[in-house]
Write a structure and sequence with these properties.
Elements: H1 2-10, H2 31-48, H3 64-75, H4 80-93, H5 101-125, H6 134-161, H7 170-195, H8 198-208, H9 212-234, H10 243-274, H11 283-354, H12 359-388, E1 394-397, H13 398-408, H14 410-415, E2 419-422, E3 429-432, H15 434-452, E4 461-469, E5 473-480, H16 487-492, H17 508-518, E6 522-526, E7 531-538
Parallel strand pairs: 2-4
Antiparallel strand pairs: 1-3, 4-5, 5-7, 6-7
Helix pairs in contact: 1-5, 1-6, 2-3, 2-4, 3-5, 3-7, 4-5, 5-6, 6-7, 7-10, 7-11, 8-10, 9-10, 10-11, 11-12, 11-15, 13-15, 15-17
Length: about 550
């Protein structure tokens, strides 16, 4: 039986498929769904019944099994009876039973079993999403090709044994039937799979309403007209132009765009052939070329979708990293106002205990209100930055930035025996979001502290220096006595998920560089025998007035 043969092939080492994927039980099949499937199957069968071999169910493009596979993929073995009915109805109403009643029934039984084996393999080995990854696409293609080869061998052999196929035409029948089913499934199944799911239909609607979709569809029509206008004399020399709209759609809209343009091209080609276009061209060759178009488009689309998914995941990871950095910044920035609130609160208690309700108490309460407003402002600014990247710029002296980060690490430096060399900062002012730039400096300083811990205590040293550069630039350098880094490490240090820390996520420097570049500056690491990071920011020109000077 084809089911056992196909599953044995799929589980062999040569096939290299992953372990079976657990699938959810199929939903209940209603009579309305079954009748709708049979009607749609017959419609597909009638449209695709083109250039049949001896009037049999052997055509160069057979998309209706793609619909049946999706039906089986959804309902499992419950789809067998409706599919058998659809096959029998197609032979009766579309082809007129050219092989006779008995052969028609036997052939329908064989095809139901063979197609069902392919559908079962897809449910078991391709997972819930057939076209969600390049691996899934490869598994789908391998199952479809292997299943159609076995199906063609069995079905055409049956026709030959009963004399429905002339002697000597067995190989031709196997080739035509296998190619027709494969082309139909490859071209049609991705679009039908999108139409069968709510999320897929939403993606298709979004794609159809984009301005570029009519543009690449119009380009496809123009290219088809040009190709079919010269194809009879040029022997496919112009067919490669059809790759232009396919690549356009796939690169812009992923698998969704590729499925749409490939199906439209196939329908257009079938319509032209039925209208009598390109009479000297072998239909099977034309369909194989269309299948190649489809595969190129789908693999490009899968790569585009995967890259977008990775980008989305990276954005989410950066948000998680930003949340950690923001939490550290929030803890530091709230420390002073909360400490002040506690001090003023104790003062108020003391004044109330003395019965003093005059100006001193009113002043302490006013300062408490001011400190609470300051704390709320810190929370708001960090929240706005985390959500939208918004900045609140203020003019800050270089020495204020350096002193702030040095004060924060005093205890850690003393605990680990690290000497800090803090050089005098030049009289330079920068217009920045102070919270964000201090976050970057804390990250650099924390990395330097981690780097020097591997050195003997007598050699642990961190230098924090600032200098004014030509072109009104401020350069803040964080240098440590750690092991340094090679050129290869320095080149990749700001890539996501690249970290020299065993427990690091590799996102802190990525976030730091994004913040600095948003301020119009730059952040780089130098390859040296010690750790060196240079933060460069635009400085205010001498004599320039600024707000909120510190």
């Amino acid at each position: 039986m084809p089911l056992q043969v196909l599953l044995r092939y799929l589980t062999s080492p040569r096939c290299r498929h992953p372990a079976p994927i657990a699938v959810s039980p199929p939903p209940q099949l209603t009579a309305m769904s079954a009748f709708a499937f049979i009607a749609l199957y017959l419609l597909f069968d009638a449209i695709a019944y083109l250039d049949p071999l001896y009037g049999l169910n052997i055509t160069p493009w057979n998309p209706d099994p793609a619909l049946g596979l999706l039906f089986w993929f959804r309902y499992g073995r419950r789809a067998a009876l409706p599919w058998l009915a659809a096959l029998l109805a197609g032979d009766v109403f579309v082809r007129g039973m050219p092989a006779g009643a008995v052969v028609t029934v036997l052939g329908a039984l064989w095809l139901t079993a063979a197609y069902g084996a392919i559908g079962a393999a897809l449910r078991r080995y391709a997972g819930g999403e057939l076209f969600a990854s390049s691996a899934g696409l490869s598994h789908w293609l391998a199952i479809v090709v292997a299943g159609n080869v076995l199906n063609a061998l069995g079905y055409v052999s049956l026709l030959s044994l009963v004399g429905a196929l002339p002697a000597g035409q067995w190989a031709t029948g196997v080739l035509r039937f296998g190619i027709g089913d494969t082309v139909g499934m490859v071209v049609s199944m991705p679009l039908l799979a999108l139409l069968a799911s709510g999320a897929g239909r939403a993606r298709l609607r979004e794609a159809v309403w984009r301005a570029e979709t009519p543009a690449y569809l119009a380009l496809a029509c123009c290219v088809l007209w040009a190709v079919f206008g010269f194809i009879a004399t040029s022997e496919f020399k112009h067919f490669y132009f059809l790759f232009l709209p396919v690549i356009w759609a796939a690169s812009r809209q992923g698998v969704c765009g590729a499925a749409l343009i490939v199906f439209v091209l196939q329908l257009a080609i079938v319509a032209m052939l039925k209208a009598g276009g390109a009479p000297t061209i072998a239909v099977s060759e034309l369909q194989m070329l269309d299948a190649m178009l489809a595969l190129v488009g789908f693999f490009i689309g899968i790569v585009v979708d995967e890259r977008r998914q990775v980008a989305d995941e990276l954005k989410q990871s950066l948000r998680v990293a930003a949340a950690g950095e923001m939490a550290a910044a929030l803890a530091h920035e709230l420390n002073q106002p909360l400490t002040a609130l506690g001090a003023y609160g104790k003062a108020c208690e003391h004044l109330l205990a003395r019965g003093d309700t005059g100006p001193l108490l009113q002043g302490a309460i006013g300062r408490m209100v001011a400190e609470s407003a300051r704390a709320a402002d810190v929370v708001r600014r960090l929240r706005d930055f985390f959500r939208t990247g918004a900045m609140q710029l203020e003019t800050v002296n270089a020495d204020a930035l350096m002193d702030a980060v040095a004060r924060q690490f005093q205890l850690a430096l003393h605990e680990h025996g690290v000497r800090l060399a803090l050089t005098a900062a030049p009289d330079v002012r920068v217009r920045v979001d102070r919270l964000q730039i201090e976050l970057v400096l804390r990250n650099l300083f924390d990395n330097a502290l981690d780097a020097v811990r591997s050195q003997p205590r007598a050699q642990r040293r961190i230098t924090l220096a600032a200098a004014r550069l030509d072109g009104d630039l401020l350069c803040i350098t964080v240098e440590d006595s750690g092991g340094g880094m090679s050129e290869a490490v320095a080149a990749r240090l700001f890539e996501p998920f690249v970290s020299s820390k065993a427990s690091g996520m590799g996102l802190g420097l990525v976030l730091s560089r994004a913040i600095v570049e948003a301020h119009g500056g730059s952040l780089r690491a130098e390859a040296a025998t010690r750790g060196v990071f240079r933060l460069v920011l635009p400085a205010l020109a001498h004599g320039t007035a600024g707000d909120d000077e510190r």
